[in-house]
Amino acid sequence: MSSSSGCDCAVLGGGLIGLAVAWRAALGGLSVHLADPDPGAGASTAAAGMLAPVTEAHYGEERLLELNLRSARLYPSFADELARFTGLPAGYDARGTLAVAFDRDDRAALAETAAYHRKLDLESTPLTGREARALEPMLAPGVQAALLVEHDHQVDNRLLHRALLAAAVRAGVRIHRSAAEIVVEDGRARGLRLESGEVVAADQIVLAAGCWSSEIPGLPFDALPRIRPVRGQILRLAMGTRPLMTRTIRAMVRGRYVYLVPRAHGELVIGATMDELGFDTSVTSGGVYELLRDAHEVLPGITELPLVESRTGLRPGSPDNAPLLGRTVLPGLIAATGHYRNGVLLTPVTADAIASLLISGTIPEYAVPFSPQRFGGPSCA
To answer: Is residue 240 domain-shared with residue 145, that is, in the same domain?
Structure first.
């Protein structure tokens, strides 16, 4: 077994979170290695890229909402810095979000959401169906009410991933396109063992493997994070040069949720399915049908668009659906995982928090509530 020279930090996982952490850590002067057999093959490039802390706000998740809002505020400068550093577009788009409702029950749910926003001093503007169609003329006549959320934005997550990969390499991060296991010796995480047998020795290990974080070989049982995969099916349609819509639309269609996210280059992303079926990544005919059916209710013109991709992503869910950020029960192992439906949104704030921990030894106060050790019991979660 061969061993490489040591480094300050080894990151396991090459999605948005892992790459952003590696980039920030390298900019802070650390020597960084990152291992992933296929960076970006998971949820990072399957997501829709919505940056929606307000329209995603849920009862009982106020602490997570604060973290989401913080990260949303970071996004413009984060994307600008990334674009300047790499010369590549980061895909940030500041067009707002429109949440729409159809029948009486949908309207009641939307009104309840608006009341919740007012209670938390979140900015959203109630609209009639007619006012919503004035903003988005291709909306179906059945839209009866809406909420305009100007500060819920989007990012093209595939462009973002490409830019982060380039930024990490340019900052000096060594990328190993290999699966890896964590090497534990004398009760401490010591490095990563690659498929070749090479061991990358590291002072600190960052576990950023998304839904696979609980499946990484080498970790003792009491250090396994309590992460579960949550499948989401997603479609991509080609709108061409005449887009049907200009801003993200999140709809409740007779009790069912669907979102439509227009890209600047003419793509339309449709999603919202959610299944807890383990690591099954099948695209189902039922899932595709439901997405197209509900999207058609919102935007009838989609029936003329070519369907260019259907795929799944596995969201990494934790017991409370909030991320695991910080030191685990295993010395030398830091978690940056469990972001569930907010992985794209939380990329900037996670990178800052984990890089701070790696460089200074202290995690920022805003990340303390998301300690991996908050659940207790036999896990690093």
So the answer is: yes
